[in-house]
Amino acid sequence: MVLQSGFTQNADLDRSNAPGIFSIFIEILTGSTDHFQVSVFPPGRKSYAEQDRGQIVQSLYLKEEAILLAGCQHIHPFCAPSQAYTCRMLVGAGLAGTLVNLISRIEDAEPNWHGQQKLLGLVKVLLVYIGRAYALRELPAESWEMGVFTRFNKMVAADQFNRRPVTDYASALSVGLATLNTALRKVSGMTARQIIQYHIIYEAKKAAITSDLPMKTVASDLQFGDVAHFSKFFRIGAGTTYSDYKRAFVI
Predict the structure, then answer these.
(1) What share of the chain is helix, strand, coil (3-state, %, to 5)?
(2) Under a CB-based contact definition with an 8 Å cutoff, are residues 65 and 6 in contact?
(3) Whether residues 191 and 125 fall in one domain
(4) What UniProt keywords apply to this chain's record, in alphabetical order (predicted)?
């Protein structure tokens, strides 16, 4: 497998809202020489307007698969699919320089087996650094919609192997289904049903990449009574068959 397939490098900014891609920007703030901002846009979220940007000094477009391969799916703000809002973190010049250097080294990695191992290590270090900055960031006030989104995702994640009707989640959150969908769309751009499907396809991708489980077992674990139904669901969600996806991301 060529791990570079897990990255979108030197891409047009319009790709920043593509499914399954995290967009990372390192910017120097306007009017400053030593104050930087790290912005992380989760999959499906359009990057902010041109006039809102500082000067971008480095960027990286990172697919979910690269995060899974690096074993960093637990690091915030890269915990797809529960991460649906944009994160911005102020960092000093030292950390910004380190991140810029890491991204440059990621882009320069050779597309061979040794290069892939080096690439995985660099990705992991990059995400750990950003994760530490995320943990130390100044927390913005949480909106009601964000609170609903956070609680909804926690419930869906807890029920990932025991799916419930969408109306059950609305009742548990003491809101109507229409209100729930409106709140979730405002935060993530997705409805409740779409977020649930995202959770399921993400767990299927994770199983394909990080385990040796056969498709039949994964389908059963994710509460699909029919393997053919799971196969179709995965092909629609991942854009390829389960077996081809698994082969593509085996090192």
Answers:
(1) 55, 15, 35
(2) yes
(3) no
(4) DNA-binding
